[in-house]
Known about the structure:
Layout: H1 2-25, H2 35-38, E1 44-49, H3 51-54, H4 59-68, E2 71-74, H5 80-83, H6 93-104, E3 108-115, H7 122-126, H8 130-148, E4 154-159, H9 172-177, H10 181-192, E5 197-202, H11 208-223, E6 230-233, E7 236-238, H12 244-255, E8 260-269, H13 299-318, E9 323-328, H14 361-368
Parallel strand pairs: 1-2, 1-9, 2-3, 3-4, 4-5, 5-6, 6-8, 7-8, 8-9
Ligand 9MR binds next to loops.
Amino acid sequence: MIKNVLLAGMSTLLLLDASCISAQTSATDQKIPSLKKVFKKDFAIGTALNNMQIEEKDPQAAVLIPQQFNTATPENVMKAEIIHPQWDTYNFDMADKMVAYCKKNSITVNAHTLIWHSQLPPFVRRIQDVDSFKTFFYNHIKTVAGRYDGKVLSWDVVNEALNEDGTMRKSVFLQKLGDDFVVEAFRTAQAAAPHTQLYYNDYNNEQPAKRAGCIALIKKIQAAGVRIDGVGIQGHWHLGKIPLKDIEESIEQYSALGIKVMITELDIEVLPRNFQGADVNQRMQNDATMNPYANGLPDSVQQKLADDYGALFTLLVKHKDQISRVTFWGVNDGQSWLNGWPVRGRTNYPLLFDRNFLPKPAFYKVVATAAKH
Ligand code: 9MR
């Protein structure tokens, strides 16, 4: 009896010891909860993927991604600049690799993005006449969306077509094709990719004015008898300023249109910034005060980040019936776009995994919000 108690005690000690060691030393330890499993009955959990991750060149990412995520968005490789570099040249190399990688790992693909004014190949801006521009527009959508129909779950058909006040952005698409280019893009995608869900995606479209413009745009697509399946709220938010009320109202108002609602590019900026959103053309002056945490994130900020993530996921779980997916814009802090924008060379901490792929306090706060089923 005494011997048994002693043995049981020793094995508990050994177990405790082993779990402590593994938690500290292994970023990809099986004992870390899996986001995709924790939220399995609530919504899909996604990440953006870059080339290193798609090609499995980073061994830690190669273990962590399939363990944590069941859906993924190509961070860059399906954008026109890469996939359609010249008038009659397409380069599907990396996009095909992404699709194969995801298939192998049972990860669905949210393709991104067909029509966006940024990251266009240079030839597009040189097209002068409207007919040639139309040819580019239709060919691009048909060729790219057609190729991946049945292989990807969804397309962000149009990305960031709105201004902050809800009016249409005066993009090259609007200038050449007029206001109806969004409806035309969805109509063309619907024909080319009948088995693919079709989404509109934007940043700050939880903000009231932009949201109103977004709702009007979605209604316009619907009124034209064209299919739109969902709306993406990108979710590039700031520490201490997560617009929870606006997000909640947006979830309710968008889902009242009969479409899916998703958070598609989630990260929380912890560094100084004097504007909101994700307009890649906006930049800021650099000086030492702009990079305050180059040597590590203070505990107080780490805690604040965890609290923000916790509050956000509490809200998202509350609306789990309307939210179909939450995608983080990157796997770990080290490869986030926010290290390079709107100021280059900063050390940012916007995600749930740190530079060593270890879960941060925010990760555990998020896990704790999952609905108890
Ligand atoms: O994360 C992407 C980054 O690697 C690119 O350099 C950048 C260039 O435009 O685009 C980033 O992703 C953007 C996304 O495609 C659309 N919404 C805003 C994202 C952050 O800029």
